[in-house]
Amino acid sequence: CMRTHSIHLWRSVGRRLRYNAAMRRLLLVLIHIAVLAVALLAACAPVRSTTARDPSPQPQAPPALPMTLTIWHSWSGARLDALNTLARSYEQANPDTRIRLESQPVTDIIGVYSRSVADGAAPQVLMTLGRYVGDLAERQAIAPLNDVLPEEALRPLAPAALDSARVGDQLYAAPLAYEGLVLFYDRRRTAAPPATIEQAIALNAPLRNEPPETRPWSLGYYLSLETTLPYLYGVGGAVLDEQGQPVFADAGREATLRWLEWLKSLQSNPDVIASYDYSVVDAAIQEGRVWSAIDWSYRRGAYAQIWGADAVGIAPLPALAAEAPPRSLIVADVLYLNPVASAEQRAAAQAFARYMIAASSQEVLLTRGGLLPAHSEVPLPDDLAEVRAALNEAQGLSGALTAPGVWRPLNDMFRSVISNAAPISEAVDAAGASLRRSSP
Predict the structure, then answer these.
(1) 208, 293 in Cβ contact below 8 A?
(2) 8-to-13, 19, 20 alpha-carbon distances in Å
(3) In 3-state terms, what secondary structure has residue 217?
(4) Which of 50, 385, 402, 422 has CB atoms 3.0–4.6 Å from 134's, for a disulfide?
(5) Whole-angstrom Cα distance, residue 192 to residue 257?
(6) pLDDT tens digits, one per residue of 299-342
(7) What's the distance, CA 303 to chain centroid?
(8) What pLDDT digit, counting tens, does each position of 52-79 carry?
(9) How far apart are CA 174 and CA 423, in angstroms?
(10) CA nearest neighbour of 353 among 150, 117, 170, 158
(11) According to DSSP H, which parts of 248-298 are helical?
(12) Count of H helices and E strands in the chain?
């Protein structure tokens, strides 16, 4: 019985040992499977950088700032309003450009600008009168524009306005608007505009027996070189010959003498108020005692206030003789470009110049600024249409004419005669001597 029990006991122990061994083998297999699975998962996982990351956002390059185009001008009132409107419209169409308008005193703008070009502080654009083109070109303070403004953009512009922007064959400015010398006359005093100086002077003939203190003047005339120069051409004279050389004091001396003698006769005519003192002439006009006047076309508003808008007539300058009409002068408002600006600024200034002479911009100068636009295709109201017609044969105050070497002796001669500082022949001879000294 004991033996049988021992046999069963050993058999039970053997079975347990075999069971435990099997379990150990199973456990080892499961461990190997788990290790293999972990290894496979590690192999399939994406490779991660061991470099520490900065949680803050990376800085971005700052956006490029708009380029600023600085424009010096002397405009005010409605003209400045028109310019500001155009500048803001240009910015909207060109968001990479900002326009800075800086007002400068008209009496100092040329001198300050010229000095600023020399020291690198000048604006990229200068807006002022075209009469300074010769002086500025001589100082090399403005950039030539022949290759900047295309012919198709210049073709619609008034020829005399373009003449005001040239020195010889070179264009140095973009003409924006212009004014010229015209005859203003009171329509209530005559049925037709005076065609000659004699007709203008005869306007007050019915009232010449009235006392001098109440008698009206037939003609008012502020005597300056610019306002009287058309009549040098009217007597057959000239300042320059076809080659651009001054001739008024030598080859054209006789015509210059006749011109100056005629101006002196106007000063002594009791039916004409003609003076080199502007305030004297203007006071007579403001009193309503002048029935016609040779004046700049921009003054049409002043005459409308004095005579009434319906009474203002505008005509070409009256001739000294029917066969020799004078050629009126045009003075243009122009846009000059700085020749020493950076390439980027120069390109922006050139684009702005092209924008300003386009028909749409020229229409803004008319409607908001009351200016006579240089663009001849812009429709005009009646008063400005009369002005444009009166200036149809006008000539520009060109750069060759206003160059300091010509203009200074010409103006000195004129002023000394009109102010009675020197006899006519002596003043002309002095101008000739000045020209000879300054010639190369």
Answers:
(1) no
(2) 9, 16, 18
(3) strand
(4) 402
(5) 32
(6) 999 999 999 999 999 999 999 976 677 989 999 999 999 999 99
(7) 27
(8) 455 555 556 555 678 999 999 999 999 9
(9) 41
(10) 150
(11) 253-267, 278-286
(12) 18, 12
User: And the tokens for 326?
Assistant: 């004078």
User: Residue 311 is encoded by which pair of tokens?
Assistant: 């009474």
AA identity, residue 340: V
* Residue with token string 């007539």: 313
Other Cβ atoms less than 10 A from the Cβ of 154: the count is: 18
Distance CA 287, CA 67 (A): 52
Cα 413–chain centre separation: 32
Q: Coil, helix or strand for 265? A: helix
Say how far apart CA 16 and CA 122 lie, in whole Å.
108
Cα distance between the two ends of the chain: 156
What's at 38, amino acid-wise? V
**Rounded CA separation 191/63 (Å):** 68
- Sheet strands (E) in 12-118: 67-73, 97-103
Q: Decide if 181 contacts 397 (C-beta within 8 A).
A: no
Polymer length in residues for the chain: 440
Annotate 172-186 with DSSP letters as a single string: --EEEEEEEEEEEEE
